[in-house]
Amino acid sequence: MTQPSIAHPLVALRDVHLNLASLAGEVNVLRGLDLEVRDGETLGVVGPSGSGKSTLLMVMSGLERPTSGSIMVAGCDLAGMGEDDLARFRRDHVGIVFQSFHLIPTMTALENVAVPLELAGRPDGFEAAAEALERVGLKARLDHYPGQLSGGEQQRVALARACVTRPKLLLADEPTGNLDGANGRAIMDMLFDLNRRLGTTLVLVTHDDGLAARCGRLVRVEDGRIRT
Ligand SMILES: Nc1ncnc2c1ncn2[C@@H]1O[C@H](COP(=O)(O)OP(=O)(O)O)[C@@H](O)[C@H]1O
Ligand SMILES: [Mg+2]
Hints:
Layout: H1 4-7, E1 11-22, E2 25-37, E3 42-46, H2 53-60, E4 68-73, E5 76-77, H3 83-93, E6 94-97, H4 109-119, H5 125-135, H6 151-163, E7 169-173, H7 181-198, E8 201-205, H8 209-214, E9 217-222, E10 225-227
Parallel strand pairs: 3-8, 3-9, 6-7, 7-8
Antiparallel strand pairs: 1-2, 1-4, 4-5, 9-10
Helix pairs in contact: 4-5, 4-6, 5-6
The structure holds adenosine-5'-diphosphate and magnesium ion.
């Protein structure tokens, strides 16, 4: 009998190239990157600064279009999709925690976390958002604006926002980067708990050895491709 999850990985990147224009000329950010991620896997992505890790998450979520190559995620061919379809694809399948959080400054923590639920038309948006913030230890910060929160607290709001829709694929860029030991461990526990309970596939860019050690598999990015 065939194993569908092996024949059809949740994520498949084939020979992905991304060239970006910069003041110094064109930069070849991704240079023939191949990667498969199985459904339900926990994948750690490591590698030196500037090697393309954040960019890899951007192309995997359809936020950045590759110059060439194919990107299949959850049965969707991202290269062939328009902006509206890509936005719907992200809404339905992907949670993203950016390195710089990207919280909306004029919205409270609660409102920030409720945004993806409102976009999905969920009537219980604010209750679910409050629960998600409680899980990351921010029950007492629901009505704070991002500017009134520490870096670590903003990171936890961003995580709550990414997890609240229970996405199939959760992409996180240095999710414990701004957190001290206890908060970092609590966030890790939350991520791996999502994986265990709901089968959420995790792709975590990290420099944190403790976090990397908990991932089922590690890949290393060097010079815009996966080092094999
Ligand atoms: N918008 C951009 N324009 C030009 N170069 C970029 C842009 N974004 C990233 N880069 C370059 O791409 C390379 C990889 O960046 P990034 O994916 O952020 O690396 P990492 O997350 O591994 O530190 C870096 O050399 C960076 O300077
Ligand atoms: Mg980065």
